[in-house]
Amino acid sequence: MACDLSSNNNKPSFNQVTPSVSTSVVDIELEPEGTNYSKRGQWLRAAVLGANDGLLSVASLMIGVGAVRPDPGTMALTGLAGLFGGACSMALGELVSVWAQRDAELAQLLRDYEAHPSPARALEDRKRALPSPMCAALASAAAFAGGGGVPLLAAAFIKPYNARLAAVLVTVTVALFAFGWIGAILGKAPPFRSSVRVLVGGWVAMGVTFGLTKLVGFTGI
After folding, report:
1. Where are the coiled-coil regions (predicted)?
2. Using an 8 Å Cβ cutoff, are 167 and 158 in contact?
């Protein structure tokens, strides 16, 4: 039956109870259309993982080399070389990877445009929305360098070997736990369990690097 909106019986009364609307629904409706929180989460998670990689890589190198060359200069130079090399490697890998992804997505856009023509401006907007290889490369390098700088700063001003080694281990332990916690929150995983997993994995990596390098040092190579 069709409703007659002009009838008084169909007009809403101010005495009627209006159904409440969830605040979350209202917030979602008021959010800008251009905001993409899923992509933002992916970038944040990638940044945390890149920083964690830099932290563990540089710390393992410093501890490993420090097992046979305990002087502070050698450890610092080793850490710097690992930071520079790792950041460049991460940037290059991200550049190549995102370029390949961009080319594939662009080819698909052009195929869709040829099959279903649309205004040229719409195509240009979709092209601009594609990931930027240069931005991805810079972000990856910055994340790696930020994580790798933690053990370097921890050991930079400490002369005694044992104190320097302890400072690196303590700082890296705290940072690994924090990175694991943040990564778990971004990935909607249990924070404590994920942090412990990252921490134990980092300890194993540093311990293996230290032990194997020490073993090589004993051989006199």
Report:
1. none
2. yes
For residues 88 and 163, give the distance between their C-alpha atoms in angstroms, rounded to a whole number.
31
Report the distance separating Cα 101 and Cα 109, nearest Å: 12
Other beta carbons less than 10 A from residue 142's beta carbon: 17
Q: Judge contact between 179 and 51, C-beta under 8 A.
A: yes
Count H helices, E strands: the chain? 7, 0
Q: Are 58 and 86 in contact (CB under 8 A)?
A: yes
Q: Indicate the angle between helix axes 161-186 and 133-155, nearest 10 degrees.
A: 140
Cα 190-192-195 angle, rounded to 5 deg: 100
CA distance 192 to 216: 36
User: For residue 91, what pLDDT band results from cuts at 50, 70 and 90?
Assistant: very high
